[in-house]
Amino acid sequence: MLREITKLYANRVDDLRLNDSINGCVDDYHAKCGGMNAVLEMCQKCTACKSLKDAVSFCRTCNYYMCDECLHCHQHLTVVFEGHEIVSMDDVIEGKVSIGHLFEKCSIHKPENKDMFCEDCKVHVCHKCVLVGHKAHEIKNQVDFEQELRRKVTDLAQRCADKKAELEKNIQNIEIQRHEVHTAVQTLLDDVRQAYSIKAKELEENLRNLTDQIHALQHSFDDDLDVLKSKDRQRIKSICSSIILVDNDRLGHLETDTLSAHILLCEELDAMLKEVTDHTSAEAIKKKAKGKRFKSAGDTRLDLGSISGSDSKMEVIQCVDLREWMQGMTRYSHSTVAIGYGSDAQGIDIIDSNGGKQRYRNTPLSDMTCYDLILQRDGALCVSTGNTEAYIYSPLGSRKATIHVRDNLYFLRVNRSPTDEIIITKYGKQVYVYDPTGSILKHTVQTKHHTYQASTTWTGLIVTSSCHADPSVVTVYDRDGNAGESLQAPRGVYLYAAVGEQDRVYVASVDEKNNSVVIRLYDLDGLNLKEGVEFNALDMTLGRSWCYLVSLSPDMLAFASWKKLYFIKVSL
After folding, report:
1. 95, 247 in Cβ contact below 8 A?
2. What's the pTM value of the predicted model, to 2 decimals?
3. Any domain includes 8
4. Distance between CA 136 and CA 126 in Å, rounded?
């Protein structure tokens, strides 16, 4: 221990230096022996006198806490205390006024300021207390301690503001998604009303039922969106309430239980701010709304149809081995197709979705080369036999007409419109439209791309496919040759289109290299195709890139590739 020389003058013993450690131990002993009341020590004492009474006010001019008697003196000895600024202790405690960085006097070592903070005990102490009872503890300067707390609260306040802004932005996004949900619901309503106008007034009751279902869907989606919105607003409210409790002007004077409660509040608020904002649920609700579709009941039933869910899917229900390479295919009934074979096998097979097969026996079709074919509503067959001619045969097999096309570069491909017009393509940049008898060429539609297959809608639009060309495209034209925006596949992927009921367009994307077929359902938007549903990829065996897709009914598709035929169930 370092020794020092102390000079004694007239005061003798009074000139000796005080031993802070010994004096601190003495004061601590008096406190433990009842010299102080422990309960009183929890309250701020008067520092203006020696009474140790509870302070009721604080003089900002004197920087003293005052008891009732000292306050009385301040208020009446105007000669001495005139102009002094006095504030109530209640206002100080409640945080209504601030007394700055004034240090409290130590109740044990009375002349000393509590200008330090013990991290271990969570109490404010003077330097004598540190020497006596907090030697091995972590001690902080009081000002540094208060600044550290203030920085934490300031950071929390800023994060609260940022989180509030994020949540408010998410609420705005929810409203944007609500608009798209309403648009999707309105589209359903328009589809139902269009079907209603076609079918007649006696369907009004059915229309009301479907409309109620759609409105119930809208209310359901609105309720889901409102729940998301309410959750975000509640989080904002909780955050604002917590920061009010955490942020006050008494941070520097918190200790023991009060400080523990403050720390717990800060931790809870910090946890709330770390919670991830839900940016995806509103998007999922919108997607669910857009997945709802109107499913027509068909032309033979006196009701409009029903609203289907968003769990649209496709499933291969039957795979049939063909006797040779498929050249052409057409719908024969709602569950049956007719397959045409070229020169290697010849003839026509009728195959149903249960796998049953039979040869088409009407001569001369039973052994004729058939590159493509269609069945008209009266049972007549139009058959492509080569590059320049197609023949129309009656149900009994007699030839009714011959269609001649000059270009002889590629095989004729045939299809029909809902009104039995005959549609012919030859992989050129033209589509030929003949009347049902095949004797009159009604339209020659110029196309932008080489066209291998073409289908038509009830409104007369022509949906063309370039099939195994590279790049492969699907384009919609009107009878004047005006075109919409083409769907284009990546190189090595080929597109085949088919028009189903309600003028919905199915497009099969055939990736021969990866042995993958993905079918998508599109709605017509003028001359453009708007994607509605992408179905699950189908597990199929592909031989060559030449394929055919046909819509048999609202619930059934047929897809043929090389020597395989697949019947596909559609769930909308």
Report:
1. no
2. 0.53
3. no
4. 15
